[in-house]
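Slide 14.
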Amino acid sequence: MPTPQPNQAPTPDAASVADAYAAETTQFLQQVAAESIGWLPLDSGTYLHAGAGVDAPVIEVVGLADASMAADNVVLLYW
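Slide 15: predicted structure.
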């Protein structure tokens, strides 16, 4: 990154802007994919899937969802 002149904010280089854009795009696509198969967003990085209705126990999962969870109530954290 070039050295900023006095009273001038540093400008980000193209590689860091591209990396930030790629990470943001990937996160957005993951959110769209989760919501399209019934996962409901609760908060940033937290989703709920109500597959078995409200009377079934909730399982907390840290990691990635998979198709075997379709009949379970699942809370997906830190995605």
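Speaker note: The longest strand covers residues 46-50.
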